Amino acid sequence: MKHKIFKINQIPGYMLIRLILGYVFLVAGLQKFVFPDEMGPGRFIEMGFPAPEFTAYFVGFFETLGGLLILIGLASRLAAIPLAITMVVAIITTKIPQLADGFWTFAHAARLDISMLLTSIFVIYNGSGRNSVDEKYSGN
């Protein structure tokens, strides 16, 4: 009996969701390494994170690896878990404080974070889908 982590759901067009999610996280993760002052530790210092260098590269590692795994469709459910956690932390630490400036300021600032959180949850629920490494090796 195959484990649910690698179960393939045959949702038409699902690969587009995987490509969007994987691309955004892969790019965001790599930018933490390529642009450390603007996107990595420098940004984490500005946001007041403890141990900003460790935290930025820790997050960057999981965004890069998770994004890549989701792009190719390998263990997408597992890869999406730390990405969803990242989005929850980002919303709590960087977006909810913007509610002080009004709901619409928050809604605008949080739109990508909320979209990525919900898309990550979709992938956690649905797995890799068609045209994935998981499908190739699962025998579905």
Number of domains: 1
Count the strands?
0
Question: Oligomerization state of this entry?
Answer: single chain
Q: What percent of the residues sit in helical stretches (DSSP H or I)?
A: over 70%
State Rg.
16 Å
Q: Tell me the fraction of residues in β-strands, as a range.
A: under 5%
Largest sheet: none
Q: Give start-end ranges of low-pLDDT stretches.
A: none
Number of helical regions: 6
Series of secondary-structure elements, N-terminal to C-terminal: HHHHHH
By secondary-structure content and strand pairing, the structural class works out as mainly alpha
Question: Could you give a quick summary of the protein structure above?
Answer:
The protein has 140 residues and is mainly alpha-helical. It has six helices and no strands.
Describe the structure in your own words:
With 140 residues, the chain is mainly alpha-helical. It has one domain. Helices cover 70% and strands 0% of the residues. It has six helices and no strands. It is globular. The chain starts with 13 loop residues before the first helix and ends with a helix.
What are the defining features of this structure?
140 residues; mainly alpha; globular
Fold blueprint:
Blueprint: H1 14-34, H2 41-46, H3 52-72, H4 76-95, H5 103-126, H6 133-138
Helix pairs in contact: 1-3, 1-5, 3-4, 4-5
